[in-house]
Amino acid sequence: MGPSSRLPHLPPTVIVGFAIIALYAFAAVFAGVIAPYGETQVVAGEFEPWSSAYWLGTDNLGRDMLSRLLYGARNTVGIAVVTTLLAFAVGGAAGLVAVVLGGWVDQFFSRLVDVLMAIPQLVFALLLLTILGTAIPSLVIVIALLDATRVFRLARAVGMNIVVMDYVEAAKLRGEGWRWLVFHEILPNVMPPLVAEFGLRFCFVFLTISALSFLGIGIQPPTADWGSMVRDNASLISFGDTTPLLPAAAIAILTVGVNFVVDWFLHRSSGLKD
Questions:
Q1: What is the CATH number of the domain that holds 220?
Q2: Is 121 contained in some domain?
Q3: How much is the pTM?
Q4: pLDDT tens-digit map of 95-113
Q5: Residue 206 falls within a domain, yes or no?
Q6: By residue range, what is the domain housing residue 246?
Q7: Distance of alpha carbon 152 from alpha carbon 193, whole angstroms
Q8: Which of 74, 93, 84 is nearest to 24 (CA)?
Q9: Using CA of residue 136, residue 142, residue 143, residue 148, what is the dihedral sign?
Q10: What is the pLDDT of residues 64-88, one digit of tens each?
Q11: Contact of 151 with 88, CB cutoff 8 Å
Q12: For residue 58, what are the β-bridge partners?
């Protein structure tokens, strides 16, 4: 049975979710081609109204809002994906290694994660970025390490249920090392919840980056970013202009689309019937 024959069985929300993700991915990859103006190009006066020349008007510096939204997809979403991948690489690996090795290794990682999670994430990120600077590499590393604590907790919790299985014990009796146990015995069996968590964690990272940018600590000007675009154009709300709501809507729509797909994947991997 081919993919086309399975497509009608997908719930409408999942089809909408995949369509939203595909649309955002297309905008992020081809922003430089489809954007009518450059990312930092000043094309008119500030706060020009919507017109045939500027479909979504201009921002506080006279830059085209549509172009900035498209480039913002590349910057905001791209950085969020890289940050989430790094968080899963660090947190997932640490969680599974702690499960397999146990003892002081498990205790060390667990207590370290407890300390880091005791501090509100956004406040901690603001503190670290104020000290380390707001360059994009610093932003990615700080948010990834803070978010890796959540990934660690999930990977460890799920791995604990797997490490006591008979086939894992049999691998230990064969003399397999911890690397084999992690990558061949445990990781394949914890992938469904980790993949679902990746989608949810991406949303949290995405929202955190946008929040930091709104506060002026995230992605810095003149780089297009949806969080900073809301801040820069917020004064228009007082005049009944919906322009500041456009980047906010872009953030909300992507979050909803990803959650549609994640909910479906969790339901499917759980084995429950509709």
A1: 1.10.3720.10
A2: yes
A3: 0.83
A4: 888 888 888 888 999 999 9
A5: yes
A6: 11-31+74-270
A7: 13
A8: 74
A9: positive
A10: 888 999 998 888 888 899 999 999 9
A11: yes
A12: 64
